[in-house]
């Protein structure tokens, strides 16, 4: 798949159909897309809120991640975790590429269906669901859904007795940035009881899922979890179930992880473990979110204010930018991210990708709200910048804009799209 040329009719058709008719997509580098935007801003000459923060989304990067997945984990079907970034262009592209969707709510199921996903390509992967949402899933024939407790089974029996249930088991998430096991996942010593309850209720359990935690940095967490899932398959078989689905969840790193535990390392452990333990008739899916989107979005912020200080005769600066912790940068709190600013424009000089060879000063970078928690980077160094200059922030595609608020009246930034695949 990686050998497909971007000018092949298949690829260009896919990328073309993935475009939303009312949203333009440039075909330039991220650098040029940002440059075009900044140039257009300076022509506006103070007529509008021209210095508002903005985001550039690169659908070509999402496509590259798709190719990488197909090349390295060909057996495992990705169901994109919509929660990580329900951006319409991303969802449309992944839908056109035939991906499935992991949805956490009625609204996410609606997004997937409206984009054209077949209900059979959706898994409602939230073990604790609102009753009316289960009814909605039933109306829409979205049959696959996860559970991890007996109460959920009684609820599902009431609202969707023919659902195809996937038992989410608890696995070791200690090597992940965001651990989910404290909230979800059936401990292994409850599996017998849950399967027996499902049997007594005449429910259709079709397989096992797990989630090693988001931002996993141990490739063996995946293989250990697959081993545990095998044990549950065996148990279920002994009880008369005929399992057909393994869901290896999310947790896959984004493209910016180039040392440590990369996607390549995880794939090299996960793929062979799945093949060794599960015969080809078992369908294997995954729920990657961050993997597809993190590296595809760049946030550009304007320096709206500066405060200068002198500490022991050393100048230092506090820069205030117009997107913050309550906006796209909520990932600092909710997703445990550390973000790094880069100079985008200084005194009108476009500096994307440049290491400016001038004196750097100690500084901190703050969001625009009146809350002191709204700090993006407490201590870094940057050249001397002024109000009106710009910073950019890479790898801002996962768990960012989608979980932002409008606290203090600051709106989510505009998103521009480009496709760098060709
Ligand atoms: N699946 C479920 C059930 C999740 O809760 C999450 C994230 O919270 C994901 C998939 C996506 O995880 P990631 O973005 O780490 O791949």
TrEMBL record:
Q: Which cofactor does it need?
A: pyridoxal 5'-phosphate
Q: Which UniProt keywords apply?
A: Lyase, Pyridoxal phosphate
Read off the CDD domains from this record: PLPDE_III_ODC
Using the record's annotation, list all stretches that form the Orn/DAP/Arg decarboxylase 2 N-terminal domain.
60-294
Pathway membership: Amine and polyamine biosynthesis; putrescine biosynthesis via L-ornithine pathway; putrescine from L-ornithine: step 1/1
Pfam families per the UniProt record, alphabetical: Orn_Arg_deC_N
Q: What class of enzyme is it?
A: lyase
Q: What is its EC number?
A: 4.1.1.17
Give the quaternary structure: Homodimer. Only the dimer is catalytically active, as the active sites are constructed of residues from both monomers.
**Family, as annotated:** Belongs to the Orn/Lys/Arg decarboxylase class-II family.
In Swiss-Prot or TrEMBL terms, this protein is called: ornithine decarboxylase
Task: Please tell me the species this chain comes from.
Answer: Phycomyces blakesleeanus
Organism taxonomic ancestry: Eukaryota, Fungi, Fungi incertae sedis, Mucoromycota, Mucoromycotina
């Amino acid at each position: 798949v990686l050998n497909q040329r971007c000018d092949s009719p298949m690829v260009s058709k896919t990328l073309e159909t993935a475009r939303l008719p009312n949203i333009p997509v440039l075909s330039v580098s991220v650098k040029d897309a940002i440059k075009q935007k900044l140039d257009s801003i300076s022509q506006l000459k103070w007529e509008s809120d021209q210095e508002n923060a903005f985001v550039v989304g690169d659908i070509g990067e999402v496509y590259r991640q798709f190719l990488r997945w197909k090349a390295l984990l060909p057996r495992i079907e990705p169901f994109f975790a919509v929660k990580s970034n329900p951006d319409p262009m991303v969802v449309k592209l992944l839908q056109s590429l035939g991906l499935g969707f992991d949805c956490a709510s009625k609204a996410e199921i609606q997004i997937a269906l409206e984009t054209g996903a077949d209900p059979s390509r959706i898994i409602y992967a939230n073990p604790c669901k609102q009753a009316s949402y289960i009814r909605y899933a039933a109306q829409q024939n979205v049959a696959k859904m996860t559970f991890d407790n007996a109460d959920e089974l009684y609820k599902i029996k009431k609202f969707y007795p023919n659902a195809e249930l996937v038992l989410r088991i608890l696995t070791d998430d200690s090597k992940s940035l965001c651990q989910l096991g404290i909230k979800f996942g059936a401990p292994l010593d409850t599996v017998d009881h849950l399967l027996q309850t499902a049997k007594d209720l005449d429910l259709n359990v079709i397989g096992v899922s797990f989630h090693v935690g988001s931002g996993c940095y141990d490739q063996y967490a995946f293989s250990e979890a697959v081993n545990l899932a095998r044990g549950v398959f065996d148990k279920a078989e002994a009880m008369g179930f005929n399992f057909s689905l393994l869901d290896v969840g999310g947790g896959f790193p984004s493209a910016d992880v180039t040392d440590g535990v990369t996607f390549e390392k995880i794939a090299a452990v996960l793929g062979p473990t799945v093949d060794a333990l599960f015969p080809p008739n078992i369908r294997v899916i995954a729920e990657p979110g961050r993997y597809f989107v993190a590296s595809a979005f760049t946030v550009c912020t304007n320096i709206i204010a500066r405060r200068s200080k002198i500490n022991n005769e050393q100048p230092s600066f506090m820069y205030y930018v117009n997107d913050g912790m309550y906006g796209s940068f909520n990932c600092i709190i909710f997703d445990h991210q550390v973000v790094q600013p880069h100079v985008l424009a200084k005194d009108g000089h476009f500096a994307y990708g440049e290491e400016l060879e001038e004196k750097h000063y100690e500084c901190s970078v703050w969001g625009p709200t009146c809350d002191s928690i709204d700090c993006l980077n407490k201590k870094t160094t940057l050249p001397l910048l002024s109000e009106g200059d710009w910073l950019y922030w890479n790898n801002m595609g996962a768990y960012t804009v989608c979980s932002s608020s409008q606290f203090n009246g600051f709106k989510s930034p505009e998103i521009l799209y480009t496709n760098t695949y060709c």
